[in-house]
Design goal:
Layout (H helix, E strand, L loop, with lengths): L7 E7 L4 H5 L6 H9 L2 E7 L6 H10 L6 H6 L15 H6 L8 E5 L1 H5 L6 E5 L14 H21 L6 E7 L20 E5 L25 E4 L3 H9 L27
Parallel strand pairs: 1-5, 2-7, 3-4
Antiparallel strand pairs: 2-6, 5-6
């Protein structure tokens, strides 16, 4: 049986990262687009079911399950503890329970700490209510995209040059999208179409690259292959070699399984 291609994952969630913010000609993610062209990144649009707000989307991303509308209320309850996923099976729990003990670190939105209060060995959370979403027409949108793209470039450079990061997978994704006014929560396509990008130099073994930037079909946000957010969990399980979480409803993304397809692996 072939060994899993990765042993670490860096999971980077950018709030409301709609698909066109990464893939379109107007995007500030120029380095990420370069990685897509080179084959070091494989792009998708990940369908986020309603409600398109952070907590239920993180539940789908980490467990592969379908959240309920009760999570809309819990998303805004600062003192809520009932939404914790600590006792549920998730890819974070699977990583931490690996032989030798997996060590998880989190920096960012403290919604992760509500969901996983004791999961992380080290964490620094910031309340999402101190963060403002920008309208698509905001003059600050491109500069913020470039800032996030610089983070991707810095992480990728470390993956290329640091020995213990050689088998690290970087996942860049949005928890949901947003409409042109900067709002989200509903089921409009602009709100349910976040970007999803798998990034690693190792991906060049299974990808020749894709054209990027590109334009989606008129009036849509469907860039590249359309997958479900719940598919992230079983895909990570395959790529990192841990059991698929118990409540998962997603399926592994076929393109990423080409690591086990001898005909599609490149020398």
């Amino acid at each position: 049986m072939r060994k899993a291609p990765f042993d670490k994952v860096i999971f980077m969630v950018v709030d409301a990262l709609r698909s066109d913010f990464v893939y379109s000609p107007e995007s500030g993610f120029q380095f990420t687009q370069h990685l897509v062209r080179s084959g070091s990144a494989i792009p998708f649009t990940a369908h986020a079911t309603s409600p398109t707000i952070t907590m239920p989307r993180l539940k789908a991303i980490t467990t592969g399950s379908i959240p309920s509308f009760l999570d809309v209320i819990l998303n805004f309850a600062e003192s809520d503890q009932s939404s914790s996923l600590e006792a549920q099976d998730s890819w974070l729990a699977q990583l931490r329970s690996r032989p030798g003990g997996g060590r998880l670190v989190m920096y960012g939105d403290d919604t992760w700490l509500k969901l996983f209060p004791t999961m992380f060995a080290r964490a620094d959370g910031t309340s999402s209510f101190f963060v403002s979403l920008m309208a698509r027409i905001s003059p600050y949108m491109i500069s913020k995209q470039r800032e996030m793209d610089d983070v991707v470039q810095e992480i990728y450079a470390a993956m290329e040059t640091t020995r213990h990061l050689e088998s690290t997978l970087l996942v860049l994704c949005g928890d949901h999208g947003m409409n042109d006014a900067g709002n989200h929560g509903g089921s409009a396509e602009s709100e349910t179409s976040p970007a999803l990008v798998f990034i690693s130099p190792k991906l060049r073994k299974i990808s020749n690259g894709s054209e990027c930037p590109v334009r989606a079909p008129e009036g849509t946000f469907s860039y590249y292959q359309y997958v479900e957010q719940s598919d992230i969990t079983p895909t990570l399980a395959a790529l990192l070699g841990f059991p698929i979480p118990l409540n998962n409803l997603g399926v592994a993304i076929p393109k990423l399984l080409d690591f086990w397809n001898e005909r599609k692996r490149q020398a």
